[in-house]
Structure formats: structure tokens, C-alpha cells
Amino acid sequence: MCASIKRICSKIPVEPQGFLLWKTTLFAHDELYLLCKYWLLLTLDKDTNINYRYSLPNNKLFDYIHTHTAVVCTPLVEIKRIVEHYQVGEVLEQLTPQILAQKINSLLENPVLLKHYQDNCLAAKEQLNWQNETAVLKQIYVEEIDSKRNKN
After folding, report:
1. pLDDT in tens, 91-120
2. Which pTM does this prediction carry?
3. What are phi and psi of 91, to 5 degrees?
């Protein structure tokens, strides 16, 4: 599958440095700047089991959003929810080389929409960050501790 996608996408003319990052294994804080060179990034995770279906794999979606980079993703439940809610990219109906190439081409042919997604990343990153999530997590712990105290 990956070889087919690479072959189709390699035919898309792009400037040097391109718009795709095939392996997303960096993401150390001092290396995030590398993502800023891209206009569009992919998260092509597969729905291999129920646990994965509802997960947010590798935090790469948040890394993409925090570098103001539009996203094309597979329809895993939580990834789809975030991409659609914050309007930061496009969700593939299914992952085939043809559908992926069509989605990428349609975004490249519509720079206004691509810029819209990139701009929406600015707003999304204000809500989707560790500082905000820490407050939510603390509240969950407080409620759990309080409920256990009330039972005793």
C-alpha cells in the first residue's frame, strides 16, 4: 500500500522540500521545526482493532496542528472528530492510493482551502495543548478522589 501511495504521489509536481512526510518518527521538541516546511501532512493509521480505532496514535495529529500544517487522515474515530471539529484538514472515506491521490490533488488545486485549514490550526492549537489538558486531567482526579471519599 505505502509503495503504491508513494508512486502515485511522486508524480505530483512540488517544490523542493515537498509537502509530505512519509515517516513521522522525529517530534522531539527541537525537531518540530522540520514539520514547518510542509503544507500538508498525512496520518494514515489503520483501524486494526477497537483500541486503535478510538486512539490518537503517536500524537502526530497534535504535532501537525501545532506546526500549522493541514492534515489528510484516515477515518479513525478520534482523529476524524478532531480534524472535522477544528476543520484542520480532510478525512479519507477509505485508504486507497487513488482516493489519497485525489484528496491531495484537490487540496493542491485549492490553495484557499489549504490555507483555511492551516489557519484553523492556529485556533485549534490554542485549545489542543498540554496546559489545557492538564486542567481536565486534574479535574478528573479530583472528582474521582471526592467520589471515593464520599463512599467511605
Report:
1. 999 888 899 889 988 988 888 998 999 999
2. 0.69
3. -105, 130
Note the pLDDT tens digit of each residue in 58-96: 578 888 888 888 999 999 999 999 999 999 999 999 888
SS3 annotation, the chain: CHHHHHHHHHCCCCCCCCCCCCCCCCCCHHHHHHHHHCCEEEECCCCCCHHHHCCCHHHHHHHHHHCCCEEEECCCHHHHHHHHHHCCEEECCCCCHHHHHHHHHHHHCCHHHHHHHHHHHHHHHHHCCHHHHHHHHHHHHHHHHHHHHHHC
Cell of 90: 480532510
